[in-house]
């Protein structure tokens, strides 16, 4: 189920990006479609997806999912457009 939502979010991002005109992408709409804000570095927008279904403990220390257990997707205007 989580993978399906992730795939839908990526497809929504691609659809919004393909529909963007030469003036640029409205990243607020992309954030709304994905359901979270992005970490922005330069022109790259990175969306993190931490795992919430794991309980990991190493040597008695609980590892929070946001530290290393998850995935991410990143995009920029130049990564989407071929020119």
Any low-confidence stretches, pLDDT <50, length ≥5?
none
How widely separated are the two ends? Answer: 36 Å
Order of helices and strands: HHEEEEHEH
Query: Which class best fits the helix and strand makeup?
Result: alpha+beta
Count of DSSP strands:
5
Strand proportion, as a percent range, falls in 25-35%
Radius of gyration: 15 Å
Largest sheet: 3 strands, antiparallel
List keywords for this structure.
two-stranded antiparallel ribbon, 4 helices, three-stranded antiparallel beta sheet, 83 residues, alpha+beta, 27% strand
General description of the model:
This protein is of the alpha+beta class and 83 residues long. The chain has one domain (2-80). The chain is 41% helix and 27% strand. It has helices spanning 2-19, 27-34, 65-68, 77-80; strands at residues 39-41, 44-50, 56-58, 61-63, 70-75. Strands 1-2-5 form a three-stranded antiparallel sheet. Strand 1 (39-41) and strand 2 form a beta hairpin. Helix 1 (2-19) packs antiparallel against helix 2 (27-34). It is elongated, with a radius of gyration of 15 Å.
């Amino acid at each position: 189920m989580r993978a399906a939502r992730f795939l839908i979010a990526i497809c929504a991002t691609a659809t919004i990006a393909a529909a963007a005109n030469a003036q640029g992408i409205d990243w607020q709409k992309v954030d709304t479609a994905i359901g979270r804000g992005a970490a922005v570095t330069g022109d790259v927008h990175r969306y993190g997806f931490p795992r919430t279904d794991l309980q990991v403990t190493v040597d008695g220390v609980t590892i929070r999912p946001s530290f290393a257990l998850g995935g991410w997707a990143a995009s920029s205007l130049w990564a989407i457009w071929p020119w």
